[in-house]
Write a structure and sequence with these properties.
The complex is a heterodimer of chains A (269) and B (350). The two termini of chain A are 27 Å apart. Chain A has 13 helices and no strands. The longest helix of chain A has 34 residues. Chain A is mostly helical. In chain A, helix 1 packs across helix 13, helix 3 packs parallel to helix 7 and helix 8 packs antiparallel against helix 9. Chain A has one domain: Orthogonal Bundle (MetI-like fold), CATH 1.10.3720.10. Chain B has 350 residues and is an alpha+beta fold. Chain B folds into 2 domains: 230 residues, Rossmann fold (3-Layer(aba) Sandwich), CATH 3.40.50; 113 residues, RNA polymerase II/Efflux pump adaptor protein, barrel-sandwich hybrid domain (OB fold (Dihydrolipoamide Acetyltransferase, E2P)), CATH 2.40.50.100. Chain B is 25% helix and 35% strand. A 6-stranded mixed β-sheet of chain B has the order 7-8-9-3-10-11, with helices on both faces. A 5-stranded antiparallel β-sheet of chain B has the order 2-1-4-5-6, with helices on one face. In chain B, strand 1 and strand 2 form a beta hairpin. Chain B is globular. The two termini of chain B are 32 Å apart. Classes of the chains: A mainly alpha (269), B alpha+beta (350). At the A-B interface, helix 8 and helix 9 of A face strand 7 and helix 2 of B.
Chain lengths: 269, 350
């Protein structure tokens, strides 16, 4: 289009330009501020301090575990939503989508009601097995999975819907069983969507705050993940909060770049 | 018979009811327009769809018997299927695509790949083994699809519009290569096409479908020379005139056609192959007994030739070379004369 000799001149109206500039400032200045105020010289010390290493370890452990839960449970759920011809699928889909828009703190309260020590399910877990999820690392994983799984389910369901079912027919005519088709054809075909959904879910789990602090509390070394450590550090040592925030910002940027370069451009291979 | 089948199905606007058989090594061409039920028939043979009623026997094995409650899954039938757009698995290399069938049937990876390699060599595409399907031309993809379908040595090979995914430029060469490869297939072959030329070139026997019914069965030459209905004639491009014969003349509506055969009488069908018709600027003189004036209504490329439709009485279609089109400056709307020798007409009782 740039070679077109009669290229239309598009002039941005001044009010729109001003409002757009304010929007950019609103989004950009805080991030620039974070970079400027990050105590770069203290960074090695802060990141090797017990609070930071424990928070980093917990964050990685819980977000990866929550992503694994989301993959193991979410892919079958996506399959059912995309393929199963049973009544009630729209209701289930609405249920799955809800955590995407639900305030995380409400999710945390709901998790307490379900899995708390006197909760609907939690009382039996405690009475029968002695399992207590709230204020435990397992509770963090559940809270993060609750919030993150819908990202994976929605992504994979979309891919399953748009995948050409005739590839599965082709595999069937070649003698493949349903299980073989699922493993060798269906899942590989939607692999990019699974990876994209997993990365989204992982990023969401990594940043999870509201549901975690409500359901699992803020215990250093047990449930205090990075975002919770940032929150706690704001009261004690702001520079620690800035440094930890900088780490999360870097991770978010890395996720964005990874998704852009590898999974949002389809069919490049 | 390697294949013996009867398939009945309800479609929204017609009923499919087809009897089909094929011997080992025989290529049967199922020819019909889109929506005539031929793809449905193929899917039923493969087990991808179930007929309302019918029975299918492949090499002595009953794979479908609606009254006996038999309906084997595709994986349990000895069938190879080449899909219209080939459906090569995009995430697998050419070699892994071809090895997929043996692997799915539990053959060890090394043996499956060796078998795949053998077929790639047979089809002269061994150098493509490591490519992904996205890097193949249409003709190459078709050979890979054919190798993938044949590597499990099926008793029945099915091809759904094997040339439809190709552009016109490569279709002719791919068609002749496919013909060579099909002639070496051990089992029975059923191929579905809406293109008469595919059926004529590739099939040993043509089964013409119309609205879910078989309207004609015969060798390609038979069907082209003696189309059983106007529909088949249109399909294979032959001019077909219905009329009354007497003393070597056939009256077709307001026109009279001279035919070579003086003995035939009563209702007849006159078949005129479009290649037998000559196109002239002026009324031709010479031995041609039949001449008709008319105006060109359409010019249409057919492979290397051009089909010329003329609104003469009766309306006729001729096939000429592009050279003739240029030399005679043929164009739509041009006034021309058509001629055909009486000996070039085929007449048979209606």
């Amino acid at each position: 289009m740039t070679s077109s000799p009669a290229r239309a001149r598009r002039v941005t109206p001044i009010p729109i330009g001003i409002l757009a500039a304010i929007a950019v400032a609103l989004l950009g200045i805080p991030l620039i501020g974070l970079v400027l105020r990050t105590p770069w010289s203290r960074l090695p010390d802060i990141l090797t301090s017990p609070v930071a290493t424990e928070a980093l370890r917990l964050s990685l452990l819980c977000s990866v575990a929550a992503t694994a839960v989301a993959i193991v449970l979410g892919i079958p759920l996506a399959w059912v939503l995309a393929r199963a011809k049973v009544p009630g699928v729209p209701v289930v889909r609405a249920l799955v989508t809800l955590p995407l828009v639900l305030p995380p703190v409400v999710g945390g309260v709901a998790l307490l009601i379900a899995f708390g020590r006197r909760g609907l399910v939690g009382q039996y877990l405690y009475d029968w097995f002695g399992v207590q999820l709230p204020f435990s690392t397992a509770g963090v994983i559940i809270a993060e999975a609750f919030v993150a799984m819908p990202f994976l389910v929605i992504t994979v369901e979309g891919a399953l819907r748009s995948a050409d079912p005739r590839f599965e027919e082709a595999a069937a005519t070649l003698g493949a069983s349903r299980w073989h088709i699922l493993r060798r054809v269906t899942l590989p075909l939607i692999a990019p969507a699974i990876v994209a959904g997993a990365v989204l879910a992982w990023a969401r789990a990594l940043g999870e705050f509201g549901a975690t602090i409500t359901f699992a509390g803020n215990l250093p070394g047990v449930t205090q993940t990075m975002p919770l450590a940032v929150y706690a550090a704001l009261d004690t040592d702001r520079e620690v909060a800035f440094a930890l925030s900088m780490i999360l910002l870097a991770v978010s940027l890395a996720v964005l770049i990874a998704l852009r370069d590898r999974y949002l451009r389809r069919g490049a291979s | 018979m390697s294949l013996a089948a009867r398939i009945a199905m309800e479609r929204p606007d017609f009923t499919v009811d087809i009897t089909l058989d094929a011997a080992d090594g025989e290529v049967v061409g199922l020819l019909g327009p889109n929506g005539s039920g031929k793809s449905t028939t193929l899917r039923c043979l493969a087990g991808l769809e179930s007929p309302r009623s019918g029975n299918i026997i492949i090499s002595g094995t009953v794979v479908e018997d609606s009254s006996g409650g038999v309906d084997l899954a595709p994986a349990q039938r000895s069938v190879g299927y080449v899909f219209q757009d080939y459906l090569l698995f995009p995430h697998l290399t050419v070699l892994d695509n071809v090895a997929f069938g043996p692997r799915a049937r539990g053959v060890a990876k090394r043996d499956a790949e060796a078998a795949a390699q053998t077929w790639l060599e047979r089809f002269e595409i061994a150098d493509l083994a490591d490519r992904k399907p996205g890097q193949l031309s249409g003709g190459q993809a078709q050979r890979v699809a054919l190798a993938r379908a044949l590597v499990t040595d099926p008793d029945l090979l099915l091809l759904d519009e094997p040339l439809a995914a190709l552009d016109a430029g490569t279709r002719a060469s791919v068609r002749s290569v496919l013909r060579r490869h099909l002639s070496g297939v051990r089992g029975a072959v059923v191929l579905v096409t809406h293109d008469p030329l595919d059926a004529m070139v590739l099939a040993d026997r043509v089964v013409v479908l119309e609205q879910g019914q078989v309207v004609q069965v015969g060798t390609p030459a038979d069907v082209a020379r003696r189309p059983a209905s106007t529909y088949v004639a249109q399909l294979v491009g032959v001019n077909l005139l219905r009329g009354e014969a007497q003393d070597g003349l056939v009256s077709v509506g307001d026109a009279v056609v001279a035919v070579g055969d003086r003995r035939i009488a009563g209702p007849v069908i006159v078949a005129i192959r479009p290649e037998a018709i000559s196109v002239h600027h002026q009324r031709p003189e010479g031995s041609a007994r039949n001449t008709w004036p008319g105006r060109i209504t359409s010019l249409e490329a057919r492979g290397d030739l051009v089909r010329v439709e003329v609104d003469s009485v009766p309306p006729l279609a001729a096939i000429v070379t592009p050279g003739a089109v240029a030399e005679l400056a043929l164009h739509e709307g041009a006034e021309v004369w058509l001629s055909v020798k009486a000996v070039d007409l085929d007449v048979y009782p209606a």
